Each structure stands twice: as C-alpha cells, then as structure tokens.
Amino acid sequence: MIKKKLFIAEKPSVARQFADVFSEKMTDRKGYLESKSLIVTWCVGHLVTMSYPEAYDPRLKKWRLEDLPFIPDKFKYEIISSAKNQFDVVSGLMNREDVDRIYICTDSGREGEYIYRLVRQEANVHDKEEYRVWIDSQTREEIQRGIRDAKPDSEYDNIGKAAYLRAEEDYLMGINFSRLLTIKFGRPMADFLNKKYCVVSVGRVMTCVLGMVVRREREIREFKKTPFYRILGTVLAGNDSVRLEGEWRVTPDSIWSGSPKLYKENGFLNEDDAKAFIEKLKEENKPGEVVSVSKKTEKKAPPLLYNLAEIQNDCSRFFKVSPDETLNIIQSLYEKKLVTYPRTDARVLSTAVANEIDRNIKGVSAISGFSAICKYILDKGLYKGIAKTRYTDDKKITDHYALIPTGQGLSAIKSLKTLEQNIYELIVRRFLVVFLPPAEYTKLNAEIKSGSESFFFTGKFLKSPGYLSAMDYSFFKKKESIKKDEEEGKKENDSDEISSADPEKVIKAVSSLRKGSKVDFTDFKIKAGETSPPKRYNSGSIILAMENAGQLIDDDELRNEIKGRGIGTSATRAEILKKLVKNAYLNLNKKTQIITPTLTGEIIYDIVDSSMSPMLNPELTASWEKGLGMVENGEISPEEYFSKLKSFVVGITNRVRPVKPGSGLNELFKRDASFYKK
Predict the structure, then answer these.
(1) What is the pLDDT of residues 94-137, one digit of tens each?
(2) What is the pLDDT of residues 522-577, one digit of tens each?
(3) Quick check: helix, strand or coil at residue 301?
(4) Fewest C-beta atoms under 10 Å: which of 123, 209, 213, 362?
(5) What Å distances lie between residue 217 and 204, 220, 223, 535, 630, CA to CA?
(6) How far apart, in Å, are the Cα atoms of 178 and each of 74, 194, 493?
(7) Stated pTM of the model
C-alpha cells in the first residue's frame, strides 16, 4: 500500500493554491483533491463548535438562576450542521489507513490551530504524524518553503492550549453572564423598551468595546465648550519686507503669570481681558527685543509598515469602509498571492525576510505606477541596510511579520475592483517608502519680547520631500493632497503662526534676526477659539483603540505588561465590532463610518456597570489577553489559567446573584432614553 500525505487547508481556495505547487497530477474528488501520493482537502472555516448547555442536560435549555454558574468538568463539542458533509470528508481522510502524515495548512495563528485541533479531536485521530505548515504568503515559493520547513505540530501545543482556553473563556463568560444578567434585568429592560423580552448579551471583548464607545459618547454629551482668546503680535523682518506673526505666551516675567484669568499659558478666558491687554501693549508701544532665534533641520522618517489594525484604520478614513470589509478584501489579495498574511499585529519585517526583500521590490517594479520608485531603490541599493533599521525587529514579531506586497500574483491586478486596487496601492506605497530617505523640514523658532511680555514665532517648511514624494496616492485628487498629508501626519507646512509669505523669504527673514536686536510690533490682535469635545470613534479608530488599549489603562505596570497586545486580536476585532452592530448595541454610519451607541447599547452598559463593571474596562480584558499570551509562551500552565478563570466566573456570579433591580436603574434608563428620538 502506497502511503500518502494529507494536506488540510482552511478554505477550498487555499487548498487549491497548495495543490498547484505539487508536480503530481491532482484529481478532483468530492471535498478533496488526490494524486498517487498526495491528498489535499479543506475545512470551511470552523467545522466544530462548543456545545450549548442543553447538550449536557436538556433541562439547562431553560435559563434559571439556580443553574449558574455553569462550568462543566469537561467541555462538549459538536459538528456544525451546515458543515457536516465536509467534516465527514476530512474526518474520513484523516482516518484512512494509507494516510500516514498530515500537514496542517490552516491559517498560521491561534485560530487556525484551533480549527484543526477541533477537527482532529472530533475525528478521533491519534496515530498519524502531524506537521505544521507556517507561511506568511500564498506564493508558490512560500508554500514550498512552509512545507519544507514544517515542524511537528507538537511544537505548537502551547498555541493550541491558548486557543482552547480563549474559546472556553469566551464561552463561560458569555453563557454565564448573559444568562445571569438576562434573568436579573431582562424583564425590567423589556418593560422599559416595550418589548416582549430582551436578552442581555455579554462578551469578554464585546462588552469592553461597548463600554469604550458609550463612555466616549457620554464625554461628548457632558462636554462644555470653553471659549478662549489668544493674542497675536506682528513684527516686520527682512528689511521690513516680511510680516511675521507670533503668539503671546505667559512666561515667569509676564505680569499675567499665575493669573486665574488665563486659559492655559497662551490665552484669556474673557474677551474683555484680552482687549484690555492689547490696549496696554499698544499704549506702551515698546520696541520688540529678539531674545532668541534658531533655525534647524528636522527629519521625519517614513512610518512603520502596516499591520491589520493600521490599514483598517486608514481604509475607514480614506474609503469609508468597515474593518471587516477591509479584512475580507486583504484576505482576497492574500489568496491572489498579491500580499502577505493579513491577520498580523507586527509592523516590522523579520531579519530573514529583510535579507531577501529585493525580491519583493523587483516584483512590484513590474507595475507601471511603481516602476520608477522601485528602480530608484534598486539602483541605489537602498534596500541593503533595511535589516539594521527600525523596520526590522524579530522581537516585535509574534506569529507573522508586517503586511507587505509579495511582488507576485500580478496577473490578478487587472481584474481587481477599484477599492481592491486602492487598498493594494496603500500596502505597496507604505512598503516602498521605508527604503526612501526621511522628509526634511526647516524649523524656525524665535522669541521676541515687548517689555515683560513674550511672543513666540514658529514655522515649519518642507525642505526636502524624501519619502513623501512616493506618497502621491492615485485615488486622491490634487486638491486633496493637503488633506492627505494631514491625515498621514505629514503636514508639509505648519507655518500659519509665523507668516503666509513665501517660505524662502520667511526663512531668510527669520535668519536675519539677531539676539538683542530691536524690531517694531506693528499690530496686535485677538484670535478667538474654543475647546473641542472628544471625537467619536469611527470603525477604524475603534480598532486602533482596541489594539492600543493599554493607553486607556491607569495602572502603569499593567499598561506596560500588555503593551503590544491590547484587547481582542487582529483576527477577531473586526468580527467583534460587526457583532455589536448586528446586536443593535452600536450604530455604524456606513457613509461616515462613525460609531455611536444605540439606546439598547446604553441600557446594556448601565446594567453591566451596576452589576459587573469590570467587564466594561480594558484592564480586565487586556489582562486576560496577556494571560493567554503567557500560556502561548509557556510561562504559565493552562491549569493555572483555567483556575483563575473559574474563580472569576464563580465570583462574579455569586456577587450578582442576590442583586435586585431597583428603581434607580429605571431612572438610568429614562436618562438614556432622553438622548434618543422616539
């Protein structure tokens, strides 16, 4: 009997990519492909899922307080009914006598490992050699390398254990807390909303994200604008040919130092005080004295490469598309071999990839829109030192390196839709600019005193565009270029405070000033402004906020510990947001991608806040995510993690069990409703 190798991919399209790299002729069969010595099959995402409580005991189908917390000694699983046919195919192949080795080709990450291990578990497979194929792109060379370098799947056991724990955690919190809060608060909520019944759905990450959005909305509502009045002074420089405009700020010498009438250090809270101050300056009519002047070159390096969260944020801003749509498009580009693996948290290259990165550049050079940039990079050898820069760091890579173009699959570009082309262009340009020199700016600073009062003149002018020259996106119109630069954080000219004159004249005029020299103030004026409320999240910024949740945590130690992890994972964040919208807890404006809570969402927030408030906070969610990472790294045992999880679920349940909904909660519901149209 000829022994065969079985390759199991996550999707049919990926399976066919694997089949294409083999020299043997593959025959199509129902649910798989086969040759003399190889078999290639696929899952369709998840084939197996965790069973609901009623699978353990039919009486648990009804939600009762006395049955909580529900924590089984051993979790049960079942085949997803819609996927049973394919499960039977995969299970049958795994148990064939002529199959002696299985190559796991599901997505390279925690979730992909979980998908395979559930299938193996339910197929009752024990006696096969198992090798894990870990790849970063779907190119022929990368697939071949992944198969060649495949390691025993036992080396990925910790990732598998973390995957099981993540699912068990979400299951226990979701099942117990959703049932608990629905039993306790579902009826009062339904009565208030005039509904037959209401379910209070709670999730480890989902509820935390809801909390972030509701808190932001309430900050906006409670925000009170504060008007302020800045003082600007104008002097003439460069033989009186250039008008320079500077901003007054309080210094220790100022008569206003420490005054309660000020807004921060550069304005007044009352317009009359500002007017009186200007009148005083004009009456005194003191000549200005140059206290200091400086001109220096400031460099701005190209941004780091894209990870999934960063590009989801940019696509939300540029194209007004949701994170899940962005992920679907990039997944399609990945399957077309155009880009590397999308579900990555890293924004850097691995050393191994950096050492061969010219292959990617040469591939991209075949695309007309990028050929000139690529030729410049290749001819100058600018790629050669990339491994020693901040764009390469093996320590900052967990599962995969940054999202970059492969330089392959170019035949698919012509068939791409406009949005797909635009997103591909984002990835390519972000990749190419890391090889280009930084942008250089001339930065001007001067302090000029009128008596005891100081005016500060600042200006920033683009000296050399460097990498910015490669950031002219084809999907932006010329008139939008300034907007693009602002959004990219590359505002080319930040000199509004100093002058509106020609940059060269301004630079020359400021450079002509000498410390101790005298100039005349020709004018003083008020520039009114007011404080702005926090911005609402959009679908991209909420993904970034989830990734950078550590910034929301007050505890310094925990914030540092979860740095780089955040809440959720690159693979799950878009789906969590999608679920919140589907549950009608959040509203997503499809045109603007702005996210706001619904009335139902705010009521859920108040229910959770009054009963199990830690579920709303990033600290808790991030600490669980950190713990899963520790399991992956072998720093703690799965048993230790599960013990803490069990204690948490039991503790919360026992704390909420005696709580009785009071009239105070109904008052909160009324307050929430006052902000929504009936």
Answers:
(1) 999 999 999 999 998 899 999 999 999 999 998 899 999 999 99
(2) 999 999 999 999 999 999 999 999 988 766 666 666 566 556 667 888 888 999 99
(3) coil
(4) 362
(5) 21, 5, 10, 9, 34
(6) 21, 20, 53
(7) 0.90
| In the block, residue with structure tokens 């009762």 | 64
Q: Is position 308 within any domain?
A: no
Rounded to whole angstroms, the Cα distance separating 214 from 374 reads 46
Count of C-beta atoms within a 10 Å radius of residue 37 = 12
Cα 268 to Cα 230, 271, 421, distances in angstroms: 7, 7, 50
> Do the domain assignments include residue 427?
yes
Q: Flag whether 312 is in a domain.
A: no
Which CA distances in Å does 441 have to 21, 164, 493, 507? 49, 51, 9, 11
> How does 634-649 read in b/e, with b if 16+ C-beta sit within 10 Å?
eeeebeebbeebeebb
Q: Are residues 212 and 231 in the same domain?
A: no
Q: Are 336 and 328 in contact (CB under 8 A)?
A: no
Provide the token pair at 591: 């045109």
Q: Is the pLDDT of residue 467 over 90?
A: yes
The 10 Å Cβ neighbour count of residue 95 is 14
Residues 638 and 556 in one domain: yes
CA–CA distances in Å: residue 165 to residues 159, 160, 642? 10, 9, 7
Listed in sequence order, the residues at least 6 apart from 386 whose beta carbon sits closer than 8 Å to its beta carbon are 349, 354, 357, 392, 434, 435
pLDDT digits (tens, 9 = 90+) for 661-674: 877 889 999 999 99
Look at the chain and count its residues: 678
CATH number of the structural domain spanning residue 293: 2.70.20.10
